[in-house]
Specification:
The protein has 4 domains: about 210 residues, 3-Layer(aba) Sandwich (Rossmann fold); about 160 residues, P-loop containing nucleotide triphosphate hydrolases (Rossmann fold); about 70 residues, no CATH class; about 80 residues, 2-Layer Sandwich (Alpha-Beta Plaits). The chain contains 20 helices and 22 strands. β18 and β19 form a beta hairpin. The protein binds adenosine monophosphate (AMP). Adenosine monophosphate binds next to α3.
Amino acid sequence: MTSFGELALRPELQHVLDALGYEEPTPIQSESIPPLLGGRDVVGQAATGTGKTAAFALPLLQRLEAGGAAPQALVLVPTRELAIQVAEAIHRYGRELGARVLAVYGGQPITRQIRALEHGVDVVVATPGRAIDHITRRTVDFGQLRTVVLDEADEMLDMGFAEDIEAIMEAVPAERQTVLFSATLPKRIDGLVRRYLTDPVRVLIRTEQSTDDTARVRQVAYLVPRQHKANALGRLLDIESATAAVVFCRTREEVDSLGEALAARGYRADALHGGMTQDQRDRVMTKVRNRTTEVLVATDVAARGLDIDHLTHVVNYDLPNAPDSYVHRIGRVGRAGREGTAITLVEPRQHRLLKSIEKATRNKISVETLPTVADLRARRLELTRSALAETLREADREDAHEQYRVVVDTLTDDYDLMEVALAAVKLAHEAGQGDPDDDVADIPQVRPSADGDQDRVAPHGGGGGGKSRPRSGPTTTIFVSLGHAAKVRPQDLVGAIANETSLSGRQIGAIEITHKFSTVEIPTDAEAEVIAALQATMIKGRKARVERYKPPAERGYKPKRGRP
Ligand code: AMP
């Protein structure tokens, strides 16, 4: 199956897919949807990011009679975040059918869920523990279920939900369709499959692709929460000085909105997707070929067969949904012996898909820390410096700057030459580079943990990052007497330290900002230097008191009795 059209989905579903800008099914979808529509059980190997939600949601919506007295589908997921995310996705796909979808998870008042269930729900997306609660309280009737989905089954087992799943499966009709998706298929999953699925179709997405072409491509990935991806992309394009990049997105909608966002930030960016006329596409391709376009934002389908020989960067703005498609995408750089860079933005939850792509393609993709504001500043200053150096070299050759001598001569009556030079550099810098503060918002640094599955967000925003920071060396926390009240942001502290001391942004550790003050973790041997420098400088236009941070206990604070 290569197009959604061939599936003969109900018009309400097809219409939503068109509106979302899905151009073609992902591999897991083309393998799973036809058997599911045919009523078969399916067990599929699929991680978050492969399009697995639509793979089970579209078939269950296809057979849904919305507005019934009891739920017709139950989706079990391991975590509350996933419950919310999956419920939102099913709601989106089923919106024209009027499907009523409810996420049911621990941590939310059960009474609210009971009221919603009484109101009428067609699809329940639940964590196992809360599903059991509702079954025991008889606040849900699973007697009419037609479909049960076990999503991220391996994770549910890892989290100790085996017994809960068993109890739930006892309580649902024997006559039902069962779907199981799991990122990995260890033996324990086999046990579930044998007990609860009937003669299932097995869907494994394998890669046959040779990866020789990609050997010369530098492959890096960054973990970035969804809402920060556009900012992160801008920062990376700047740091990398990308002159010809293709940025891949999954949907037409995303291509359009990212193309506009990049253009608004001053990139020469164009969009390419299957919803455009041939004429429009030809025009874009001409601009790409004659190098008018720096950044082409495209869907996989639109970029098929695209051959741009001066391409320097491929960016996976969205992780491709299967290893094959990763190889196809990045094969566009590094052709004919040239070198190129492939950058992949990974949302924290998709870390597993990245691992499986790495494994399937036998490529090493190094997960790096996003450049900080300080890195970006340094890079932009370097660009200004080299532009000035180039101009100075021209002056040597052509005496071309004589006409400006009068300006410098008159200014040096009142200012010294260094001050004049600094002002001129500032003007040149701002004209050429802009102020990074304009387009750099806080981007939390997310680092993969040792097991690679759970990710954590570092306590500060635009600050230094993990990998190259000497985490092993001793660190000291310093206290700065300005906080949220003075509108201080992490990047202000990182910027001040990186500008005024010998530390780079990457050597700066955790930053905490409270209403009245902030704390910054730095290498112990830089303590005196950082304190002196910050005391001498202004932060957000204000002088701060800076000293070594003393935790409350050292300050004579006595915890109240009864508190740990
Ligand atoms: P999932 O693996 O279900 O978490 O889906 C990952 C992302 O892929 C979601 O943002 C979906 O909206 C998107 N997606 C799913 N199917 C398609 C498709 N056929 N074409 C483009 N995007 C898709």
